[in-house]
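Quick question: what would this complex look like in 3D?
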Amino acid sequence: MLKQRWFMRSLSTILPRAPLSKQILKSEPTAELLEKLCFFKKTQSGIFHMLPAGMKTTDKFIGIIQDKLQTNNDASLVSLSSLSPKSLWQTTDRWANSELFKLKDSKKNEYCLVATCEEDITELMKSFITSYKDMPALVYQVGKKYRDELRPRSGLLRAREFIMMDAYSFASDESDATRMFEDVNKTFLEIFQELKIPVVRAYADSGDIGGDQSIEYHLPLIGGESTILSCNNDSCKHVATDEKALSYPVEEGQFTGDVCVKYGLSEDHTTLVCYYYPKGRQINWNLAKLSVDDDIDSSLRDCSNQEITDLFQKENEDMMFTKVLRVMDSRINSRSNFPDFPLKSYLKNNFGQIDGVSIVTATDGEICGQCNEGTLVSTKSIEVAHTFNLDTKYSKPLSLKFMDRENNSTRLVKMGCYGIGVTRVIASIAELTRDIHGLRWPVAIAPWSVSIVSTPQGKNSETDKNYGKIVSLFKNKDPKLASNIMTNLNRTASMGTNISLSHSIGIPLTIIVGNKSWPRVEIEVRGRRWSGTDICKWEEEYPHLKEEYQWEVNNASPIDPYHEKHIVLHKHVVDVVKLLLQDL
Amino acid sequence: MLKQRWFMRSLSTILPRAPLSKQILKSEPTAELLEKLCFFKKTQSGIFHMLPAGMKTTDKFIGIIQDKLQTNNDASLVSLSSLSPKSLWQTTDRWANSELFKLKDSKKNEYCLVATCEEDITELMKSFITSYKDMPALVYQVGKKYRDELRPRSGLLRAREFIMMDAYSFASDESDATRMFEDVNKTFLEIFQELKIPVVRAYADSGDIGGDQSIEYHLPLIGGESTILSCNNDSCKHVATDEKALSYPVEEGQFTGDVCVKYGLSEDHTTLVCYYYPKGRQINWNLAKLSVDDDIDSSLRDCSNQEITDLFQKENEDMMFTKVLRVMDSRINSRSNFPDFPLKSYLKNNFGQIDGVSIVTATDGEICGQCNEGTLVSTKSIEVAHTFNLDTKYSKPLSLKFMDRENNSTRLVKMGCYGIGVTRVIASIAELTRDIHGLRWPVAIAPWSVSIVSTPQGKNSETDKNYGKIVSLFKNKDPKLASNIMTNLNRTASMGTNISLSHSIGIPLTIIVGNKSWPRVEIEVRGRRWSGTDICKWEEEYPHLKEEYQWEVNNASPIDPYHEKHIVLHKHVVDVVKLLLQDL
């Protein structure tokens, strides 16, 4: 008896019991919608409990990641401690990071809660990598990460505790390192393709993590925090983040307004670098750095112009031995309105100038700096994954070395690191796919693939029997699919309530067992057909279904999504469901 | 090419490459052995990274737990945040616990890293349980827990970061609560039976967690930290922890030596309770409490006798209105040597006395207090799981209430909580099953079920081909089993090295593909036959194997474990392996 009640209740205890109002479905921010639909529950700013529906979605995504990494890249699964000792982070000079959660144990040892694990994995692999024979190797883990964001926002998009997949590669030379970097990036693309979402790869800045080569994965999204720039030239198609994208104006030297300047010092502090660019544009540090062949002291990046010139004059007593390098953004010309030069005394002969470079953040409509032909198109997006070719950035300070094949000397291991923001991907997909009826998951990560709804239990014994018949059909014909079916949304509520609930939770297909339509049942398509395959194809491929089969498509209004219904004899329901799921 | 090298290497990168010495296998503590065999890696005192072999073992165990809880108890999986706010723990009066890891975020909010989640789950379920209709419900999670033990020891047996499965039940009345408690306990027993390990259930004290009813699961183990007492009377068989077990002496009142006394005060502090018991025995607070019907102030439990009598005299100005209650352990008699009575002035008339009770920790050979017939047998053990019938211990302070069915009033939810120390179970099984050849896992949680070893790759092309043939046989006949086979221990090392490696890692079966024995292969049984089934049975059940089949058992020496070998035609290898695995 108790068992019976459990079957009826336990899952639906942590699911909505009644449909949300149209107003909430339409205008509630996605983070709140996910909470109202019982996927996650916020406990503190940026901190969440994961509820059963959210767990199912997350576990499915993690399953896809693991499967791909193991099959394609033979990756080894580990799970590093969440408590990382201060000493490791001091060695790589990252302990000062104010976003680390820090704590002391009862013996006053200091730790941080892991934000990323480059330090820990490098230290760990010292026990396992000693010879070139031990490489290449790829190690990964999936687990909670912590970042004490000052302004956590948008729910799981920018949380303080979140789930991340982080992988680390180890190679003995650059060509192996690059091949592993490319292989893992290939797998990342396959992972996102499995979700049938339009993820874009962009060349990116490697930021705080380090390394020379870096690729970000972006989900295009109106209102996204990031901007990516794509070249519309089909033979180029270069995509980069706005931190990395190089662009040129449609016509050079056309800017005649006020010019801004940003000062910097060369690495030896004997050259004052003056970056001139149009007012109203944003200087791009990566491009600025590139324009002087990286000969710039990046630690002074955030200093004011006054601080830079003071430092320059203080460190160089004799101005005779200094230089001034003027870097001119290609948008400006000599007739532009330049600011005053800051130094009182200087030697004209020591002036140098670089012209025709681009040092400002690219904008929509400018010329692609990669092919010099196409036009850049700017798109708002969310970053969902990031890969880094780290070279020896961590193996050097932490001394991860191996015995060489050729000359029996020790060399530093070449590393790469690769991250997928698991909960972030889920939150972005929710954001991307939601519509006025609620969420709309791809089958690959939907908490349930199918729901079966009917009239309230106990109201019509014939319908109850038919409902049981459909459930049994799935259990007998495809037990794995059957375990992905939601059969107990709210069996005491009306059919309409349950259809709305199923739609709002975002279950891709709803099977409706009604008393009038029997022996036919309706299958409502809620999921989105990303591939654009037309259902007619199924009828052609499976002619035995055609006779007894009917489908309808309504496009009720411009804001109402595509409505698709399949009416099939109950004995075909499993086959049709399986066909439909392939494309959702 | 790279792929090929990965297949060869990546797994074995984080596995031992050479067998450990006999000395290490024999005498290294199990915690160090698990580390040397690359299951876990200690990073700090009580803190560990989990390596691929340890991950596989852990994941298999978690899979069994999830499967059983979902199938038997329809439990819902959640994952609560690891950061629990101070305010919750203050409400239940548990924040002072010195074993909590505590931290502050950048806004000075305080958190602990979760040690258990009664507070968080109770708070969470307030959003979901409002009516009797929402219950019964069972919610569980599996994840990292934190306890800042002052003296972490024995590796994963007493770690500061560890993996735990914690489940929580919610019921509207006592009978449902008790039924859920019993149902989950039944599932726990099934989980341990699946591992084929001899786990014992013992009635236990509920300690800091609280509640009236509590059952612990113990793995009997020489050198274990706990002691359980089992009644040898077949119609009783009562088992309890030494904190809970009630025992009587074989003959009462036979103790004539020095008597110890422990003082306490009744809850209203007007009665001085004097517990008298034999010197050399340990007073058992649970029994002492029970002997006075719980009318004792437990908060004074750790006060000295002097402190108790001082407090008694200070709080009671007129001794006329006080009482003295003498509780006599049944082992002592009036001729025993009693200590002096502590009070100067007292009234003889106000003395009471309780005789014939047992208030000391039970010992081996005493009479079972449950049946009053059997003899208690004491066993050293490790506690691996604990269940609590909590009643309203947490729902009361945190106000988890529901609307009653009968009279539309609100009532407190009856809770239960249930924990399995996942990493602790794994460490205890390693401790229990290890022998002079290394670890010896039950199939259910072995990192790999089978290993296939042969001569070094490239040495004999015929053997290499046969090796490939055996691997393919498994892949074709049973892909799931094939994914549980270790095929790349160290393919450049000798066959003997790999057999030793496989034995020490504790893989239950080793298939040896040699050049002499072909077309037969040898299957070495490393796993332990807990059920004692004789292999002959298989031959009877599967006569088609009998003709071409041969088996040997050697028991080399008293300390050397049972050696069992099966020599079979290669075409039968999958069948025989599957039969053998059933019993390991």
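Answer marked as accepted. The domain at 2-20+438-581 of chain A is CATH 3.40.50.800 (Rossmann fold).
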